[in-house]
Amino acid sequence: MTGGAEQALIGCVDRVLRHAGRVGADVDLVVTGESIDEDRREYGPATRALGVEPRRLLPKRMLGECDAASGAVALAVVLAGGHRSLALLTGRGAGGAVGAALVERMSDDGPDRG
């Protein structure tokens, strides 16, 4: 990821945290588009913005390249988890576009469950 894309992702994460009224320490999972641990093109800028290094999940390593469906696959992996979490999902396109979203997964035994 180029310096411009890194800065753009940092800015994206800052904005999504601010918009949600959250701080970096609230995030306990980062879901990125890399496929190996040594690739930190998304995780590095994301954790710099968060100020902490939460657990990292790499759906691409588990499921392979999903191209345009990568974001939906990342979301499905977070929602399928069995515990409460606040996850940061990041993405980057070949043209340098970046994105970030916060997803809060509630526990399966909450008061809203029948």
Explain the overall architecture.
This protein has 114 residues and is an alpha/beta fold. Helix content is 37%, strand content 19%. A four-stranded mixed beta sheet has the order 2-1-3-4, with helices on both faces. The longest helix is centred in the first third of the chain and has 18 residues.
Write out key terms for the chains shown.
4-stranded mixed beta sheet, single chain, 4 helices, alpha/beta, 114 residues
Describe what is shown at a glance.
This protein is an alpha/beta fold and 114 residues long.
Poorly predicted ranges (pLDDT <50, ≥5 residues)?
A: none
Q: Which sequence of strands runs across the widest sheet?
A: 2-1-3-4
The shape, in one word, is globular
Helix content: 25-40%
The whole-angstrom Rg is 14 Å
Mean pLDDT across all amino acids: 87
Calculate the terminal CA-CA distance, rounded to whole Å: 45 Å
Q: What are the SSEs and their pairings?
A:
Blueprint: H1 3-20, E1 29-31, H2 43-50, E2 55-57, H3 59-63, H4 70-80, E3 85-92, E4 98-105
Parallel strand pairs: 1-2, 1-3
Antiparallel strand pairs: 3-4
